[in-house]
Amino acid sequence: MLLNLNQEGEKFDFFNSTVNPQTLDVDYDEPVKDGPWMILKPGQAFWEKKLASRTKKVEHVLNPKTRQMERNTFYPELSPADEKKEREEFWDYCIVDFGGFKDQNGKVLKVTKETKVAMVKVPVVERFITRCFQIIGTAEVAAKEAEEKN
Fold first, then answer.
1. Residue 35 lies in a domain
2. Which of 100, 8, 1, 13 is nearest to 45 (CA)?
3. For residue 16, how many other CB atoms are within 10 A of its CB?
4. Which 8-state DSSP code applies to residue 23?
């Protein structure tokens, strides 16, 4: 088996989706041939890198039952501005590339961080990305199970 170690993600042809109002289930259409597409990669590596760069805070708290001090380690909360910035960086990391998407005026969207963040706010695009992440995750689980059998 040959692996492309330089591959930056998985390419998905865009598929539309609707939410059934009675059951609240999401119904997915077939992918659009020669239509819009996205290259996505999972965000696990992004979060691992982010958490590795953060410093943990340590507090010693009295346990009233045992009357001993316990050590609590945690990551401090981010400010709302930092949270927003981190979410934008996450989507910029996960959406590697895209093409064929147009705005309401018919202009082709350019691949920028701002465009990626704006696209995620559109419900049909958010459902598309979420479903693509589910597909990537399912494929990774199946590959690990197959590897364990060997």
1. yes
2. 8
3. 14
4. T
Q: Is residue 28 part of a domain?
A: yes
Residue 40 to residue 14: CA distance in whole angstroms: 12
pLDDT single digits (tens) 87-114: 999 999 999 999 999 989 989 999 999 9
Residue range 14-72, pLDDT digits in tens: 998 888 888 888 888 888 888 899 999 988 889 899 888 888 889 999 989 988 999 99
Read off the tokens for 125: 């695009």
Q: CA of 108: how far to CAs of 15, 51, 96, in Å?
A: 18, 36, 17
Structure tokens at 116: 């990626």
Strand partners, 74: 57
Neighbour tally for 93: CB within 10 Å = 19
Residue 91 belongs to what domain range?
10-49+80-149
